[in-house]
Amino acid sequence: MTANTIWLGIGFLGQLLFTSRFLVQWIASERARRSIVPLAFWWFSLAGGATLLAYAIWRRDPVFAVGQASGLVIYTRNLMLIGRGACQGKPA
């Protein structure tokens, strides 16, 4: 197995994680019968974004890397806000 094959696998894994967040959000919204963003959405966003960032860096694609890095800031911040709300007794 070559490094190129391994990195293609990492890229596809990142894309799968990133896409999973939409499935999680859709299923949660259907169950609640209203639009909601569950905690798992942000965790899948973070995991998928980090994996895709690693792939973008390996590909030496600055546009892709900057886009994924920017998203990681947003996903991390949302998880921090959710965590802060949970610590204050507010619903997550």
TrEMBL record:
One of its GO terms (biological process) is lipid A biosynthetic process. Residues 10-81 form the Lipid A biosynthesis N-terminal domain. It comes from the Bacteria. GO terms for molecular function: lipid-A-disaccharide synthase activity. GO terms for cellular component: membrane. The keyword Electron transport does not apply. Keywords: Membrane, Transmembrane, Transmembrane helix. Pfam families: LAB_N. InterPro entries: Lipid_A_biosynth_N, UCP028440_lipidA_biosyn. This is Lipid A biosynthesis-like protein. The lineage of its organism: Bacteria, Pseudomonadati, Pseudomonadota, Alphaproteobacteria, Rhodobacterales.
